[in-house]
Design a protein that fits this description.
Number of strands: 0
Helix content: over 70%
Structural class: mainly alpha
Radius of gyration: 16 Å
Shape: globular
Number of domains: 1
């Protein structure tokens, strides 16, 4: 999460080192350690219990449940959590969620279904979070940029 924010600020937003918002990066690091990692890691365990197996059909079912149920809920929690940590009022946070959520969810669907299908079919459960986090560096750059747009 922190690396994603660093990439967002330096390569996407082109802030430069003088304008880099260190607090924002640390907020994203804390979100990664305290929210994203535990929630996603726990979700993979639940998902593997709900749909045991590693066949192509099992992987497809896991991906559909992950992207149809988990991803929309996760983004719906993540974006307002960032807004709250950045001091947005409830009203501003709600307006920002209404504005940003549809685009974030659609963008999610461009990347994650293919990644998750491969992840659920090819990767053992105890490595899935690590594989996702490698891809997530790019995704987290996008999420950080999207979550911090005013």
């Amino acid at each position: 999460m922190g690396l994603g924010d660093l990439i967002s600020q330096q390569l996407v937003e082109r802030r430069g080192l003088q304008e880099h918002q260190t607090r924002r990066t640390w907020t994203m690091v804390c979100l990664g350690c305290g929210f994203v990692g535990p929630v996603v890691g726990g979700w993979y365990k639940v998902l593997d219990r709900l749909i045991p197996g590693t066949t192509k059909l099992d992987a497809l079912k896991k991906m559909l449940l992950d992207q149809g149920a988990f991803a929309p809920c996760f983004l719906g929690c993540f974006l307002p959590l960032v807004g709250t940590l950045n001091g947005l009022s409830a009203q501003d946070n709600w307006a920002k969620l209404q504005r940003d959520y549809p685009d974030a969810l659609i963008t999610n669907y461009y990347l994650w279904p293919a990644v998750q299908l491969a992840n659920f079919y090819l990767v053992p459960l105890h490595y899935r979070l690590a594989v996702v986090q490698c891809v997530a560096v790019i995704w987290n750059s996008y999420l950080s940029w999207k979550a911090h747009q005013l």
